[in-house]
Design a protein that fits this description.
The protein is of the alpha/beta class. Helices cover 51% and strands 11% of the residues.
Amino acid sequence: MEKIAQTTGTCSVELVLFDFGGVIAEEGFRNGLLAIAELNGLDPADFLKEAYELTFNGGFVTGEVDEHTFWHMLRERTGIKGSDQELRKELLSRFILRNWMLELVQRLKDASVVTAILSDQTNWLDELDARYNFFRFFDRVFNSYHLGKCKKDPSLFEDVLGEMNFRPEQSLFIDDSQDNITRATSRGLHTIYYQDKISFMDSMLSFCPFI
């Protein structure tokens, strides 16, 4: 009975959309790229700019090019060394799941709140799930690699809400990118800009006091 009492509160939203890297898990993509820059003696800001340019404008994040092509192009632009396997390990090893966040997701589900991942990720998201089995905590998973559209296109939020049959005012989106938060807000969603656990939990309590 005690568990029921803790999880049968109400939320002011009915759907919660979670970003993956930087919210559900540590930001492995950025942190891994910074490690690669350091290993190769490159300016981290310049290297990040090149890598993000290829990821988002080169078609990797939307599934238009594969991982091998991404690493090949990044080597050509920056001169980094290492095999595909060595480079990807620097990234994937840094996507460390936040167990406390998954526990929060489970509390929301126990209270009949619908939960989903909305991530600008590549095929790596599927590989990480095969390793850690975290998709099971969510009702749906929306990954830009399979959707062919990423969060830089604000219409993605309308697509996802339409697919799940929720209105913007019923929905909460959580992301560690201020730009993504701005786009979601422009489409009428409630949002939380994730910066740290304490401020995030304070913000969540305003939507779901029972957590």
